[in-house]
Amino acid sequence: xxxxxxxxxxxxxxxxxxxxxxxxxxxxxxxxxxxxxxxxxxxxxxxxxxxxxxxxxxxxxxxxxxxxxxxxxxxxxxxxxxxxxxxxxxxxxxxxxxxxxxxxxxxxxxxxx
Length: 113
Hints:
Layout: E1 9-12, E2 20-25, E3 36-42, E4 48-52, E5 56-61, E6 64-69, E7 80-90, E8 94-98, E9 104-109
Parallel strand pairs: 1-9
Antiparallel strand pairs: 2-6, 3-4, 3-7, 5-6, 7-8, 7-9
C-alpha cells in the first residue's frame, strides 16, 4: 500500500494569497448533494483561528470537490501552524470531514518586515 504524502500549505505572515484549497475525495455520495460546506482552522492548542461557512466549492466529479478558503486579516498575522479541515454536511445533517485522516497543516512563516 502506498502512503499519501501531503506537503504542508505554506504562506507568509500577513499574506492573504494564495487561498487555502482542500481536495475532498472519497465521498460517500454525489458531492452535488452536499447541503453545506465549511472550512475550519485551529492552532495546535485548540484556539479557533477561523470558521469559513461560505468557502468556494468546485465540484470536480460526483465523488470529488475542492473547497477553498480565502484568507482575511488577521488570520495569518501570527506565525506558526494551523490544523485545517473541510466539513461537508449531507442532507439530514450527516457530516463528513476531509481529509478523513489527519489534517491539512498550514505553516505561517514569519515575514521579515
